[in-house]
Design brief:
By secondary structure, this protein is of the alpha/beta class. The chain is 35% helix and 16% strand. A hairpin with a 2-residue loop joins strand 4 (69-71) and strand 5 (74-75).
């Protein structure tokens, strides 16, 4: 058999889509080392390399944008609309350019999370497009109404041409897709032992008083870090370099230690609603503290998911931004469902891809 070639298109919004897809791609590479991976995304290479240990081709291209944001919770809808209209106008040239690349490189299959033009690339190149996600961008834009409705209709039509969807947990119905396979949680695994992480980062607090604070690649302005002074015998692992240098704060920089690598030593994760953080915390049984996001339709499905399947605290924006963070002294709530979620999403998607290659 000729070397199988997988073209992986990743939505250009934050880091969550890149890390969850990279976790799946890493599993594909481990199970089928001969596969040639082409990752098509503007996510930085260092981020992809922090999940994928082997070689891959990085093709920095943007076919969507998600939402233009100032930080993890602040959206710029007019700028988002303008950029979406620009993509719509350039649709034919974007398709022509990628189809040329796909043919030249003899790609066998597209796996996408979840740029809406990817099924059109596949149709024009006469190969399948499989997608993976817990939501489509048509859901997000339709929720905003007004001029976004016609954009959402266009995107739904693109998604309808996808050959197969791997629907992740915490999902919306994703009714634009006709062939849906439900899979378990995806995400990375810790690379280091608890002892190694504790020693490297001088973590001496017990697990119940060690808290991971992570707001993804976009960060968050105005986190009330002064509240951490109220917890002198606790320790906080934070990825925000603008956080104050408090004695109980460990600021993480560089790409060697990912948020998931701190999971074995943390008693809780404080985060915005985001699939990647929610999935990794649920896989590793670490309680979550989060806040609602009324303007982002995916958030309602994520919150419903952790209420059903994970130990959680959903606090108000007022409690987070203006309170004293006493919620950390309260016990998380139990999940409402007794049946846990499957945790084999990486493996299920990877095996399906490899089975497809073997069928060629």
């Amino acid at each position: 058999m000729m070397r199988p070639i997988l073209y992986v298109a990743i939505t250009n919004h934050g880091f969550g889509h890149a890390t969850r897809t990279a976790s799946v791609v890493s599993t594909i590479q481990k199970l089928c080392p001969e596969v040639l991976l082409i990752l098509v995304t503007t996510a930085p290479r260092w981020l992809l390399e922090s999940y994928i240990e082997g070689d891959f081709i990085h093709r920095p291209r943007a076919f969507d944008l998600g939402v233009v944001q100032g930080d993890s919770l602040t959206m710029d809808k007019p700028a988002t609309l303008a950029q979406l209209r620009d993509i719509q106008q350039r649709q034919n040239s974007l398709i022509a350019s990628e189809v040329n690349f796909i043919r030249q490189n003899r790609v066998n299959l597209i796996l996408a999370d979840i740029p809406f033009l990817a099924p059109l690339f596949a149709k024009a190149a006469n190969i399948p497009c499989w997608m993976m996600s817990n939501f489509g961008w048509d859901l997000i834009y339709r929720h905003w109404g007004g001029e976004f409705i016609t954009i959402a209709d266009w995107i739904s039509e693109c998604y309808s041409q996808c050959d197969r969807l791997f629907r992740l947990p915490f999902h919306e119905p994703m009714s634009s897709f006709s062939n849906i396979t439900d899979v378990g949680l995806t995400g990375g695994y810790p690379r280091y032992s608890a002892e190694e992480v504790r020693a490297t980062w001088r973590i001496t607090a017990p697990k119940s008083k060690t808290i991971l604070v992570t707001f993804g690649g976009l960060g968050l302005e105005k986190i009330p870090y002064e509240n951490l002074r109220n917890f002198p015998d606790w320790q906080f692992v934070i990825y925000d370099q603008s956080a104050p240098d408090l004695p109980n704060v460990r600021k993480v920089s560089g790409s060697k230690y990912r948020p998931v690598d701190f999971s074995p030593i943390c008693g809780r994760v404080v985060s915005k609603p985001g699939y990647g953080t929610f999935a990794e915390a649920t896989k590793l049984d670490i309680p979550l503290v989060t806040i609602p996001r009324d303007d982002f339709a995916e958030a309602n499905f994520l919150l419903a998911g952790i209420v059903n399947y994970h130990h959680h605290q959903i606090i108000t924006s007022q409690e987070f931004f203006s309170g004293n963070w006493d919620f950390l002294r309260q016990e998380p709530q139990q999940p409402q469902q007794s049946q846990p979620l499957a945790k084999d999403g990486n493996e299920a998607i990877a095996q399906a891809v490899i089975d497809y290659f073997h069928s060629l």
